[in-house]
Amino acid sequence: MLLLLFFGVATSRCVHEETQQHVDLLSPPPSQLPTDLRSSSLPVPGPRHPQPLRIQACYLGEPPSDGAWGPERHGMPRGAARALAAAREAAWRIRGVLAVLPVQGPLLLSRDPAQYCHAVWGDPDTPNYHRCSLLNPGYQGESCLGAKIPDAHLRGYALWPEHGPPQFVQPDGPGVQNADFLLYVRVGHTSKCHQEPSVIAYAACCQLDAEDRPLAGTIIYCAQHLPSPRLSHRDLVTATLHELLHTLGFSGQLFKRWRDCPSGLSVKENCSTRQQVTRRDKWGQLLLSTPTVSHSLAKHLGVLGVSLGGPLEEEGRLSSHWEARLFQGSIMAATFDSAQRTQLDPITLSAFQDSGWYQVNHSAAEKLLWGQGSGLAFGLVSTCGTDSSGFFCTGSGLGCHYLHLDKGICSSDPMLEGCHMYKPLANRSECWKKENGPPTGAEDPHGEIYHPQSRCFLANLTSRLLPGGETSHPSQVPWLKDAELTGRCYLHQCTQKGEYEVQAEGSPWVPCLPGKAIQMPGYYGLLYCPRDRLCQNDEGANAVTSSASLATQGLLFQLSLGLAGPPGHSLGKEQREELAETVLQALVNRSGTGRCYFHNPSINTSLVFTVQMWKFPDCQGPPVTVLYDALTLTLQKPLEVCRGEACFTTKYSKLLVSLDHTLPMSHIFLSMGLCLSLVILVGLLGTVVYQKRAALQVGPLAPLPSPDIPGTGSPTGRIMYS
Questions:
Q1: Beta carbons of 558 and 660 less than 8 angstroms apart
Q2: Most CB atoms within 10 A, among 120, 582, 607, 677?
Q3: Radius of gyration of the chain from Cα atoms?
Q4: How would residue 34 be classed by pLDDT, with cut points 50, 70 and 90?
């Protein structure tokens, strides 16, 4: 599972399959220990119910220390803390999406008998037949994609005499509590990083349980790329999520192990290995052909009732990515533009449902726009050249990327196999960047506006007279040729779901009816309004993780703050997202703790800032209950934050605090006692802090540049997974 970062125009062969092929998938061997010596993480009989998937991300340095899990270890390579934070954030996102039958007790991984044992007893008449009789003197322990697994996470092993009880060479480690999957994180300059300079991270699954569900994997980040400011925090988290999903089961090496559980996860006796997960159609296209995937794809294309398979990228005999022609923007496509253009889509979640290992929260799926409602012929090499769907293009002209954030050029790449789409220009393609606009005072006859609320539209608007002065009336436009249409940037604002208005420089707002061409007062020519592309999401909807689903995962709080700004000042969606990041940083500074307590910040149209609070494992600081109670007191003194020329103040009169998880009384009393101590400390420090700086002005948390503004901090070019 390699993540390839392309600077400019570059090519590289896919190496995912060969990477996973060189990693042995170790399953627990049949236990040969007496019952009273078996690990508590072995399956426990009796009915159980799925619970949110608990992923523990562990940083392993060089060399690793047994059981060391903290990010503050001495000597971590540059960028390791950033990588570990991304891994843990991706793990928490997955926890709101996938559920499993939980591991009972501490999770312990297996040892490979072929590694630690040199010979076994061969006489079937002896009581210790086929047990280890001679150890391998060169045994150095277990590893996962080059990362040495701590002995604390492994089952023990023993040397057996011909008769009698075993001599334990290494007892069971204590294991990892509250874990269903272990993700080992390494950062360094590996040979793979050296051989493939464009690779920034790669991952592999290493261990499975008795039902073949993945139990452990490793993700390796190439150290030279982590300090780059062009790789934003959101991009790194999204890339990590892609790799993590590979290790959890979306892999050509794991498809053949998927299970069919017709009675659900809780009745394991009815589960069996799926007979057909992938197949080839009559044209030779490799398909992921499981039932939920087929139904989800048919629903996406608008052809319910038709039995389909999900096309996979042609990567040899096996494949671990969706076909690029049909799945642009999917988290499991092989190419990745940026986090805001990537969705954890319904079809990918359907694949995990069909794996038989997980119960899936389908409400967490994000909308996949590419190809929606385009019918059975969408994405075929034989039809993409006709541009009948409106997602592909022909020729090599300028237009708009299908999400309309960028101007684009009609082009192809090896993944598209001859099909063309509008790809963002290499430079200054972003309509939402003010700095891309013309210099102040420069004349722009097209009336373009570069702004966070601007989008790309196909248009041929001009304020100049027509050639020869045939007419000066803006309605005289039929002679304009289609070839003159090109991608232009204009303001837009949503009026309701699926409907919007457009504004050019100096013009009033004009309703833009999807699928129609409109005229703009003061301009000749037309502007075409895209259908089913803009204003499709419900305002304020959280497509990743809802509070309701997170509330089952532990101590969860929600903190909301009303904001008062300049009179008459309005904010668009992107501006609210940018301001939410600024308020979050101010809140982190006020709390005196790390960002690891705060998640999913947002600001709604009523200017209410909301953030969820829970504590990542190994997050340094007080319990979240204590921090939450202390903040509700210290926030009686307002925060003041500024973005550009506008400043906003939190209004205590609108302070909303709510607890989204019922706490035991012991937590409440402990919280109250510790909170009183913090209040005294805050009182002593508060005067000094607020006299020193009455108004807090902060920017995005360095080095994480405005992660929710489209494209901010994104690498130049494209990122390709492989």
A1: yes
A2: 582
A3: 28
A4: very low
User: Would you say 159 and 169 are in contact if contact means Cβ atoms under 8 Å apart?
Assistant: yes
593's CB contacts (< 8 A; 6+ apart) are 620, 621, 622, 627
Describe the chain by its helix, strand, coil percentages, rounded to 5.
25, 25, 55
Distances, alpha carbon 368 to alpha carbons 289, 330, 592, 655, 670, in Å:
19, 7, 39, 36, 46
**Rounded CA separation 660/622 (Å):** 19
Candidates 14, 51, 594, 23; CA nearest to 319 is 14
- Of 167-171, 405-409, 614-618, the range with the highest mean pLDDT is 405-409
SS (H, E, C) 285-347: CEEECCHHHHHHHHHHHCCCCCCCCEEECCCCCCCCCECCCCCCCECCECEECCHHHCECCHH
Quote the tokens at residue 400. 């708009």
CB 710 within 8 A of CB 575: no
Q: Would you say residue 351 has pLDDT above 60?
A: yes
Q: Would residue 57 be called left, alpha or beta, if left means φ above 0 and alpha means ψ between -120 and 50 degrees?
A: beta
Give the pLDDT confidence of 121-160 residue by residue, as tens digits.
988 888 889 899 999 999 999 999 888 999 999 999 999 9
Pick from 544, 431, 536: nearest CA to 494: 536
Q: Could you tell me which residues are beta bridge partners of residue 109?
A: 154
**Annotated active-site residue in 17, 142, 196, 243:** 243
Amino acid making up residue 103: V
Strand-strand pairing, 55-59 and 181-188: parallel
Beta-sheet pairing, 486-496 with 454-459: antiparallel
The separation between the first and the last C-alpha atoms of the chain, rounded to the nearest angstrom, is: 5
Residue-wise pLDDT tens digits, 672-719 = 344 334 433 434 444 333 333 322 222 222 332 333 333 333 333 344
C-alpha triplet 213, 219, 222: angle, nearest 5°: 165
Chain centroid, CA 484 distance in Å: 39
Residue 489: closest CA among 524, 527, 450? 450
What are the strands of the beta sheet with 2-5, ordered from one edge?
55-59, 181-188, 214-222, 199-208, 2-5, 719-721, 335-336
Beta bridge partners of 599: 612
3-state secondary structure of 484: helix
**Residue 447 backbone zone (phi > 0: left; psi -120 to 50: alpha; other: beta):** left
What distance in Å separates the CA atoms of residue 396 and residue 379, rounded to the nearest whole number? 19
Per the rule left: phi > 0, alpha: psi between -120 and 50, beta: everything else, 25 is beta
CA atoms within 13 A on the CB side of 454: 25
Choose among 265, 254, 38, 247: nearest CA to 155.
38
Per-chain mean pLDDT for the chain: 78
Strand partners, 648: 641
**Around Cβ 260, how many Cβ atoms within 10 Å?**
16
- 3-state SS assignment for residue 534: coil
Query: In which element (H, E) is residue 580 found?
Result: helix 573-591
CA nearest to 179, candidates 79, 63, 94: 94
In Å, how far are 131, 185, 279, 667 from 123, measured between CA atoms?
Answer: 10, 43, 45, 59
Q: Are 546 and 631 in contact (CB under 8 A)?
A: no
Q: How far is CA 402 from the centre of its chain?
A: 20
| Helix axes 346-354 and 233-248, enclosed angle (nearest 10) | 30
Active site residue 89: no
Are the C-beta atoms of residues 206 and 218 closer than 8 Å to each other?
yes
The burial of 544, by beta-carbon neighbours within 10 Å (0-12 exposed, 13-18 middle, 19 or more buried), is given as middle
Please answer whether residues 601 and 540 qualify as being in contact, where contact means their C-beta atoms are separated by less than 8 angstroms: no
Does the pLDDT value for residue 373 go beyond 80? yes
Is 713:235 a contact under the CB 8 Å cutoff?
Answer: yes
Contact yes or no for 98/352 (Cβ under 8 A): yes
pLDDT at 625 over 80: no
Q: Are 110 and 42 in contact (CB under 8 A)?
A: no
